[in-house]
Design a protein that fits this description.
Elements (H helix, E strand, L loop, with lengths): L20 E3 L9 E3 L18 H5 L1
Antiparallel strand pairs: 1-2
């Protein structure tokens, strides 16, 4: 099934929502939602999680 071109994209990879995703708790985060694999997560971290390195977001 093709992806709906109107479906929003997320993450560093700019893909649609799929699989396990995590929301960034940093209110200034421009992306907000990330796929686990794209940010090297295999399990949900306890507590708050955020992408802390601006260079990480620039990739």
């Amino acid at each position: 099934m093709p992806v709906d071109p109107n479906e929003p994209t997320y993450c560093l990879c700019h893909q649609v929502s799929y699989g396990e995703m995590i929301g960034c708790d940093n209110p200034d985060c421009p992306i907000e939602w990330f796929h686990f694999a794209c940010v090297d997560l295999t399990t949900k971290p306890k507590g708050k999680w955020s992408v802390w390195a601006p260079a990480f977001l620039e990739n």
